[in-house]
Design a protein that fits this description.
The protein has a single domain (about 5-410), classed as Alkaline Phosphatase, subunit A (3-Layer(aba) Sandwich). Strands 5-4-7-1-9-13-2-14 form an 8-stranded mixed β-sheet, sandwiched between helices. About 30% of the residues lie in helices and about 15% in strands. By secondary structure, the chain is of the alpha/beta class. The longest helix is centred in the middle third of the chain and has 32 residues, at about 290-320.
């Protein structure tokens, strides 16, 4: 039988929040995955926002190609996806949890199933389970924390488990209805358990039918708000947390909006071309005590997910499927926890935001307990999954097959691209990363970022305008342009002289 594929993802997880890398956090089951497989410590997102990054995972294309270029835009339903290809090859394909391929509003040219009014229309979700972007079956939960648009299949699951008054635990739309840090929602009804339990059911169904599966267990946390039930809310002592820091003057050589984040009431109107705000374009000032509490809750959210990962791995053992399943763990993008004076996310392409955790286990193919330092991108997952399944990779996919690199066989790519076009022109940047350097260009702006990740791994010194790095900058610009040309793709091969 072809190998099963289990993709486990979180939302907005910093790359060092794994117990094998960070002794302050407890993730025993992810640590097990690292021991039994490969830890990919130079993995990156394609865009530090949910919709474009997640769309890259399933299409194998960059946001500028697949068209979902920021949150609030839609991925066209007719885009070829890895789920559709695997489904045509006989796989049971299932997505459980967060999709976010569509915006929170609907318009004639961008109709969406993920609008607040639709998400609370439980009669719709009782009858809709797909197909959706190549997945034969979906069971969705779009909310973070106690968001007032909570609904979809998650709400039906809560009701089936006996929590008919589930609305009492979520926002009612009033300004004071949001909760902070410790959630009174009983743990058993939390959406992390929803994702775990329904993913288990999907894998059991495929095993019963004796068919291979592609299951995406798509957890919504640790995305803000920093909110989780007990016992996870008090699992970590805020006093033990170590927030990131801002070093004096480190932002002085950065684009102006970096510096403005350290103002009490910054005016970002110059960078707002539409009525929609840019993520992160606000004051990032926060008291040390509050930041430590946020980090403690953030860690608790991750440990809660880790417990679910343990249940998924245990199920593979019980089903006798562990040896024939490629398991990949990752996230859609990173998160700031005080590093460079920043919180959450925004148009700030530091490693904390664009570098991500990634683990892969594939017994008999991927060696156990190794660490691979070769560059990885989320755009590579789709072609790698198809390669593992013995299927051809479509020409229009821009990612590369990483299986050989996961075996320790050397680099599959020599660079990373990270895109960010949060507004049509005012906030439009692209970053090129190689093994040592990272350079960022801003559309129609004189600014730029250049970091020597070997000499300055914490990215405190932007040397974009440093004469000592002029030759490096010129070489990187040449590589950037060449890489842009290399990633042009087409659906078709040339088959005739004309």
């Amino acid at each position: 039988m072809p190998p099963n594929i289990l993709l486990i993802s979180t939302d907005q997880q910093h790359f060092d929040t794994l117990g094998v890398k960070n002794p302050r956090i407890k993730t025993p089951h992810l640590d097990r995955l690292a021991r039994e497989g490969v830890m990919l410590d130079r993995a990156y997102c394609t865009n530090p926002l949910c919709s474009p990054s997640r769309s890259s995972i399933i299409t194998g294309q960059y946001p500028s190609t697949h068209g979902c270029w920021t949150i609030g835009t839609k991925l066209d339903e007719d885009r070829p996806t890895v789920g559709a290809i695997l489904g045509d090859a006989g796989y049971q394909t299932t997505l459980i949890g967060k999709a976010h391929f569509q915006p929170l509003a609907s318009r004639n040219d961008q109709t969406s199933l993920e609008t607040p009014s639709t998400m609370r229309n439980l009669d719709f979700w009782k009858t809709f389970h797909g197909p959706y972007y190549g997945f034969n079956r979906v069971e969705l939960a779009r909310n973070h924390g106690d968001a007032d648009w909570t609904g979809q299949h998650y709400a039906l699951w809560m009701e089936a488990k006996g929590l008919t008054n589930w609305r009492d635990y979520f926002q009612d739309g009033s300004p004071d209805s949001a909760r902070t840090h410790t959630w009174d929602l009983p743990e058993e009804f939390h959406y992390t358990n929803f994702v775990t339990e329904r993913s288990i059911t999907a894998m059991e169904r495929a095993a019963y039918d004796d068919e291979p599966f592609f299951v995406w267990a798509s957890y919504q946390d640790p995305h803000p708000p920093y909110l989780v039930p007990e016992p996870w809310a008090s699992m970590y002592n805020p006093a033990d947390m170590e927030p990131g820091i801002l070093v004096a003057d480190e932002l002085s050589a950065m684009a102006p909006w970096f510096q403005m984040t350290q103002e009490e009431d910054p005016d970002f109107s110059e960078y707002a071309e539409t009525a929609f705000a840019n993520h992160g374009f606000k004051s990032h000032l926060i008291a040390d005590e509050a930041l430590r509490i946020n980090i403690a809750i953030y860690y608790g959210m991750i440990s809660f997910i880790d417990a679910g990962v343990g249940r998924l791995l245990d199920l593979l053992d019980r089903l006798g499927q562990a040896e024939n399943t490629l398991v990949v763990f990752t996230t859609d993008h990173g998160n700031f926890l005080g590093q460079h004076g920043l919180t959450a996310k925004g148009a700030f392409h530091y490693e904390d935001l664009i570098r991500i955790p990634m683990l892969a286990r594939y017994p008999g193919t991927v060696p156990a307990g190794i660490e691979v330092h070769e560059l990885q991108s989320l755009v590579d997952l789709a072609p790698t999954f198809l390669s593992a399944a013995g299927l051809p990779v479509p020409l229009e996919m821009q990612g590369v097959d990483q299986l050989a690199a996961w075996r320790g066989g050397g680099a599959a790519r020599d660079h990373i691209f990270v895109e960010n076009r949060h507004q049509p022109t005012a906030v439009h940047l692209r970053t090129y990363v190689d093994q040592r350097y990272k350079i960022t260009f801003y559309r129609d702006r004189p600014w730029g970022d250049l970091f020597d990740l070997e000499a300055d791994p914490e990215e405190r010194r932007n040397v974009f305008n440093d004469p000592a790095y002029a030759d490096v900058k010129a070489r990187l610009f040449d590589r950037f342009i060449n890489a842009e040309l290399r990633r042009e793709v087409s659906k078709y091969e040339r088959i005739a002289v004309a």
